[in-house]
Amino acid sequence: MEKIRKHTRVNDILLGPLERPTLKWLAANMPAWVTPDTCTLVGTLGALLTLISYGLSNINPIFLWLASLGFFINWLGDSLDGTLARYRHIERPRYGYYIDHTMDVVCQVMIFLGLGLTPYISFNVACLALTSYLLLSVLVYIRTYVVGEFKISFGNLGPTESRAVAVLLNSAMYFFGMQSIMLGRITISLYDIFVAAIALLLTGFFVNTALREARRLAALGE
Prior knowledge:
This protein is mostly helical and 222 residues long. It has one domain (2-220): Four Helix Bundle (Hemerythrin (Met), subunit A), CATH 1.20.120. 74% of the residues lie in helices and 6% in strands. It has helices at 2-5, 16-29, 36-56, 63-88, 93-117, 123-147, 159-176, 190-220, and strands at residues 8-10, 149-151, 180-183, 186-189. The strands form two sheets. The chain has a two-stranded parallel sheet with strand order 1-2. α3 (36-56) packs parallel to α5 (93-117) and α5 (93-117) runs antiparallel to α6. The model has no long low-confidence stretch (mean pLDDT 91).
């Protein structure tokens, strides 16, 4: 468990130059009654809002904007909890790691299942993307324990970029509605193709990282 306590955090993302100073400013100006646990709860409620809003998009696509707001709230809570704890020097490494990433999984499930409830994306494709995301998440958690490195960015992409892409996808679904192409006698949603491509990208990150780490550990004889 010592590597969990003292792991190195790697989050080399494209939006990092914007995100890091923003989070530092928010942590410095957050009211005293806001705790890291409060932030985690806020992030979870944001994911729940996204799930509900995606379901309501069957009634009116305007709820897609509410789903995007849910992504912003989820980012705010999920990104700020650890930053706030470090800023106030109130870190609880084991507890924080456990609660934060347990709720991360819950949020991922809510968001992807919600995506599959929209009229624009197949539930099966959404579940495929969820599976890929969970595979990569599990690998991140395993590497943290085995290697002592908490790496959540792959190809300069991380959870923040994932949320940004989701908001762009929501905007496309709202403005352009259902978009499909014909492959023979089969009609395929362009949004399904896009989400399936994301799933393949995540799976590629998983396979590449898992094999590379396995070879490295084998060479070390560990």
